[in-house]
Write a structure and sequence with these properties.
The protein is α+β, with helices and mostly antiparallel strands. It has nine helices and 36 strands. It is 17% helix and 43% strand. InterPro entries: AB_hydrolase_fold (IPR029058), Peptidase_S9_cat (IPR001375), Peptidase_S9A (IPR002470).
């Protein structure tokens, strides 16, 4: 890849630690703020996925070929020493409380989750996906149990009594729990208006008090000084950084870039360190000074020549207004690619994407919509594509295609692609409305919900069934829409990409679609990478896929 990507930046002892793929895969680096230089700290065969500072020790997590079963290692003088090495398990690291370290884990064939400490003792058992999101005093872990993408419960685990304590709160989305006084805690939840807002929890009664009431999602907050916090808000995709005071509950925007995405930020006295990108600016790390508002780049990608980007909207079939990000070309009859994001409860955001950039340079417009079911637009919008409403989301893409061709898009050169859920949506379009597009690309997509729900890890099955439908209950609808059942309807060239260690959508979803179409003599090709997972971590694989997609689209013009 021509552009470096950065992940999971943390401030520690006057240095910024971060994960970067600049070596061809993800490794841990340290940037010395005073000396202004970076140093690579790890050199492993596999990818570094996360890291944590616990007292004077630095822990890292590593998975195998992108299978997401992260194992824990101690980084000691450049070498990684195994601490938790149970490769059959998914681990969800890492929280410190009262000089002990805790995490949850689950077997890849089991739906149950367990709470462990670093001595590998089983402390609690849970029937749903469970992660630690905070602590109270030196006695309790705050755990979030997920029953769907929009329905979670909070429980406490008493580390002294080794018992679970229920919290009387309703099922909603919850994140970022932090105790701030003996009797109060901050957290983010959509319990009030369907958007993720800051709330205060009374730790005696567990009542929630909304501190913000905005139609946007608060993503995170970090303490600044006294009773002030820096808050990252997702406003229809765009990031805005605010100061927020517990004195008056006012969000006051910082004079920082608001045309892209804040991927990460750290607060240090009078300085703010921000990992940022926009549609026409690759990832860079900036230093923002609170006293005078000055901004300077510390490290990252070099700037690229500016080009036009925009956010647009269109009215879909049932009068809902939907938004999309656009890489427009000011000419007539422009070949156009529609890219559908994954999730479905994810969101297209105005961040830098190397494939979009390359397609744009190749002469393609790229439109990236947030169809119904996307996050960032409230809980009700998230529910608009569940189960039998799935084809409404497909219709949203068709309406976007018509909207674009009513403009300057070439109706004879329209292309569709998507990843994960977006790949499933691409296959739905290719099998239900093949004549609407010139070619299609499916990346790690679902071809048949029945086999997907059967073969995906059991701990994910119930979560996904609440969105896609339950086997034995929604079979008629599942069979009716299945791309695999309608594969003979595909009249356009289809390119499929997958990976052997995908822990979310099994590789078999792509293999069965490819084999059935190949038997029918249809124009289909499958590339399956042997050393990667759902999210490609090795740059060689990403580069290969990008080049094949670009070559494929250009050859069809």
């Amino acid at each position: 890849m021509k552009f470096k990507r950065y992940f999971n930046m943390k401030l520690h002892n006057n240095s910024l630690y971060y994960i970067s793929d600049e070596t061809g895969k993800r490794e841990l680096f340290r940037y010395d703020i005073k000396q202004k230089w970076s140093k690579q700290l790890t050199k492993t065969e596999e990818n570094i996925k996360g890291f944590w500072f616990i007292e004077d020790k630095l822990y890292v997590s590593i998975d195998f070929s992108g299978n997401e079963r992260e194992q824990l290692y101690l980084l000691n003088e450049g070498q990684v020493e195994p601490i938790i090495d149970e490769p059959e398990y998914f681990h969800h690291f890492l929280t410190e409380l009262n000089k002990q370290v805790y995490f949850t884990r689950n077997h890849h064939l089991d739906a149950g989750f367990r709470l462990f400490n670093l001595d590998n003792e089983v402390l609690g058992n849970f029937e749903a996906p469970t992660k630690i999101i905070g602590t109270i005093d030196n006695n309790y872990l705050v755990l979030k149990m997920d029953y769907s993408s929009i329905d979670s419960e909070l429980v406490l685990f008493d580390i002294n009594a080794n018992e679970i304590v229920d919290i009387p709160v309703e099922g909603h989305r919850y994140s970022s729990f932090k105790q701030i006084t003996q009797s109060k805690a901050l957290l983010i939840t959509d319990a009030t208006n369907g958007f993720m807002n800051l709330h205060m929890m009374n730790l005696q009664t567990y009542e929630l008090e909304p501190l913000t009431d905005i139609d946007a999602d608060v993503l995170s907050y970090k303490h600044f000084k006294n009773k002030e916090y820096i808050v990252d808000v997702n406003e229809k995709g765009y990031s805005t950084l605010y100061t927020f005071s517990l004195h008056d509950y006012v969000l006051d925007p910082l004079d920082f870039y608001q045309d892209g995405v804040v991927h990460n930020y750290e607060v240090d006295n009078q300085k703010l360190y921000v990992l940022f990108s926009s549609m026409n600016s690759p990832m860079q790390v900036y230093q923002y000074m609170f006293d005078n508002g000055s901004i300077k780049q510390l490290f990252g990608n070099k700037p690229i020549d500016a080009f036009k980007t925009s956010k647009e909207s269109y009215q879909t079939f049932d009068d809902i207004m939907l938004e999309y990000f656009m890489y427009p070309i000011d000419e007539d009859n422009v070949p156009t690619v529609i890219h559908i994001h994954g999730g479905p409860e994810s969101q297209a955001r105005p961040e830098f994407n190397e494939l979009y950039y390359d397609l744009y340079k190749d002469g393609f417009q790229v439109a990236v919509p947030n169809i119904r079911g996307s996050s960032g637009y409230g809980t009700n919008f998230l529910k608009l594509d569940d189960i039998e409403k799935r084809l409404d989301a497909m219709q949203d893409v068709l309406e976007l295609k018509n909207h674009l061709t009513d403009g300057n898009a070439d109706k004879d050169n329209m292309f569709v692609m998507g990843r994960s859920y977006g790949g499933f949506m691409t296959l739905l379009l290719a099998t239900h409305h093949s004549d609407a597009f010139k070619g299609a690309v499916d990346i790690v997509g679902i071809s048949y919900l029945k086999t997907f729900l059967t073969n995906t890890p059991s701990w994910r099955r119930n979560l996904r069934s609440k969105e896609y439908g339950f086997i034995g209950q929604d079979d008629a609808f599942i069979e009716q829409i299945a791309p695999l059942n309608k594969s003979e309807n595909v009249t356009i060239p289809l390119r499929i990409f997958h990976s052997k260690h995908d822990a979310r959508v099994p590789n078999s979803e792509s293999v069965q679609m490819y084999e059935k179409m190949k038997e029918n003599g249809q124009d289909v090709e499958l590339t399956s990478y042997p050393n990667d997972g759902h999210m490609y971590l090795f740059n060689d694989n990403t580069d290969d896929m990008h080049e094949k997609i670009r070559t494929f689209f250009k050859a069809l013009l």
